Amino acid sequence: MSGDALKQAVVARARQEGFAIARIATADAIPEAPARLQAWLEAGHHGEMGWMAERLAERADPRRLWSEVRSVVMLGMSYASEEDPLAVLARPEQAAISLYARRRDYHDVIKGKLKSVAGLLAARGGADVKVFVDTAPVMEKPLAQAAGLGWQGKHTVLVSREHGSWLFLGAIYTSALLPPDAPEQDHCGSCRRCLAICPTDAFPAPYRLDARRCIAYLTIEHAGHIDAELRPGIGNRVFGCDDCLAVCPWNKFAGAAQETRLALKEELGALDLATLAGLDDAGFRTLFAGTPVKRTGRDRVVRNTLIAIGNSGRPALAQHAEALLRDASPLVRAMAVWALGRLVPERARSLAPAHRGLESDAQVRQEWDVVTELERVA
Questions:
Q1: pTM
Q2: Residue 235 predicted with pLDDT over 80
């Protein structure tokens, strides 16, 4: 089978599997990636994501990861929604969970479909193949731009003229030589909406993201305590942040996602903060079974929920923070102190002596010290 015919068959199978777009890049299509990645790492903008620095050469050059690769099939699956993902931000008693995380875990959905496309490629082309979904040293976004799926916008997320900022990406490395597609050009123009809306100023410049200030990173990847200066900007976002994606003008061309296995779980779109704060580990696992949220774990999500409670301006929610002052997790205890101090500072001050004296974690003790300092200032 000729390269052109094989490519057509691959694209057709990708469409059958629910991918919105599938295009081809050569294995050497991102020569500028190593320098850009190195500069980002040297600036410390990756935060605690040490895995980004590991296997750097393989991440920046597909041929270093697998010497036999000649072509890269980049595929995108839409997760666009007809609803406004930012509407929940106006309801401070409810939890804002990113659109992608209110669906079945995309890793589980996409990997099987990638294997189907790769299997056809291997069977008809006699080629070797490897599939990747966000779990290997693969620079999906630069490769996707090189293949023509879209371009990396000023918010660093891939933007498509047909699907906006709402594409899950997958990659197939193959030893087959397939006709490449033209790379996509940047169509952001003078627009700065994604930069202006960021609540924590996570973009030091267009096309540069400092993950250490990014709400998605802080609420999902960051395993420790969240800096006090960043907490107010988090608002009621308990898992991820859709702000910079949702305001992209190119979203107006994106139709709702068609893949039924990625249908939104409606119950995750209107969760009360009080409900989340009361979850034990078993309840957490049940509620978020099959979603990306489950991988982050109960403690981090309840940590984030307490930040949202502290930002809510609703003193009635303070009881849920107080109930967690003796939680087993110091992440949770620290934010319970912070939330209580934000909502009913006099109650927090009255509890400080007894709780601080029994506290073994330095960060939690520091949160109690802040409460005590507020008392002295008052």
A1: 0.94
A2: yes
